[in-house]
From TrEMBL:
It comes from Nibrella viscosa. It holds the Pfam family Thioredoxin. It comes from the Bacteria. This is Thioredoxin domain-containing protein. Residues 4-64 form the Thioredoxin domain. InterPro entries: Thioredoxin-like_sf (IPR036249), Thioredoxin_domain (IPR013766).
Amino acid sequence: MVEGLKKAVGNYVQITKVDTDAQPEITRTFNVQQLPAFILFNQGLEIWRHEGVIDGQTLNQLIQQKVASL
């Protein structure tokens, strides 16, 4: 799903996949309670978050809406 999302919105956002087992401090830093977690930042500030399972099409639409509103 991450690769498909990169193709759909990659020109607008940077998408990074994090191995939370290898880097558990990231989940603590961003207070992630449930995986997968999708967090959208603008200029270093969190502007949107979704934790838990979500289908790719819905995620794509939500991200595009948020990007369009910036």
